[in-house]
Amino acid sequence: MILQSFAEVGPIYNLILVIVVIVLFVKLLKAEAYQHVYTKPWKLIFIGVIIFVVESVITVLRNLSATGVGRHINGFFELAIVILFIHALLLQKEDMKQAQLLKTE
């Protein structure tokens, strides 16, 4: 019974916490100190967070029986999030390589 309660309330808590994360991302990306910093990887991670929000909303609606979307759709969302995160890491790695090359010359 307790586990079922956690299973129903967990996605709602995820949405509440992700709202805090979105507010922090917006503050980070709009900060004046970051106007001249390479922020493309952070923007990709932000898109991944937005995809997570969509996935969480669908999960909450599914738990409330408000939508007929199957569970298989979550795999596509997870795949998109992982791809975005890996791409962001590779972009950051490439940027760090270029910055290191500029310092050594």
- What class would the helix/strand composition place it in? mainly alpha
Mean pLDDT: 85
Q: Biggest sheet: strands, sense, closure? A: none
Quickly count the domains. Answer: 2
Quaternary organisation: single chain
Question: How big a fraction of the residues is strand?
Answer: under 5%
Shape: elongated
Low-confidence stretches: none
The Cα radius of gyration reads 18 Å
Helical fraction equals: over 70%
SS elements, strand count: 0
C-alpha termini separation: 65 Å
Question: How many H/I helical runs?
Answer: 3
Order of helix and strand elements from N to C terminus? HHH
Describe the structure.
The protein is mostly helical and 105 residues long. It folds into two domains: 41 residues; 36 residues. The protein is built from three helices and no strands. Helix 2 runs antiparallel to helix 3. It is elongated, with a radius of gyration of 18 Å. The protein starts with a helix and ends with a helix. The model has no long low-confidence stretch (mean pLDDT 85).
What is this structure's SSE topology?
Elements: H1 2-30, H2 40-63, H3 73-104
Helix pairs in contact: 1-2, 2-3
Task: Supply database-style keywords.
single chain, 105 residues, mainly alpha, 2 domains, 3 helices
